[in-house]
Amino acid sequence: MPLSLVFAFLWLVLANVIAMFPSKHHHWPAAYALLAVGLPLLVWVYIENGLLIGAIITVAGASVLRWPVYYLLRWLKIMRPKS
């Protein structure tokens, strides 16, 4: 198994463990840290494993970080906010 996938799976496990803990700030500081580590890791996965595996890891990461993705899409005006 390529090393980038090992680190990607460890990132996913860590993200899920962080999501289990209660937080006053609704996990936003942890989300920023996960994004800072996860984006370069995602580039590494794409370079080492190709588009298909990279897309699968992208979907897995987006499922963990749902709200940052939602707010990014809203900011880009791809999704409309509920009125």
Question: Describe it for me?
Answer:
With 83 residues, the protein is mostly helical. It has one domain (3-14, 26-75). Helix content is 77%, strand content 0%. The protein has 4 helices and no strands. The chain is globular, with a radius of gyration of 14 Å. The N and C termini lie far apart (47 Å).
Oligomer: single chain
Structural class: mainly alpha
Task: Describe the largest sheet.
Answer: none
The gross shape turns out to be globular
Summarize the structure.
Keywords: Membrane, Transmembrane, Transmembrane helix. The chain is mainly alpha-helical and 83 residues long.
List the topology elements:
Elements (H helix, E strand, L loop, with lengths): L2 H18 L7 H22 L1 H14 L1 H10 L8
Organism: Halocynthiibacter halioticoli
Keywords: Membrane, Transmembrane, Transmembrane helix
Protein name: DUF2484 family protein
Features:
single chain, 4 helices, 83 residues, mainly alpha
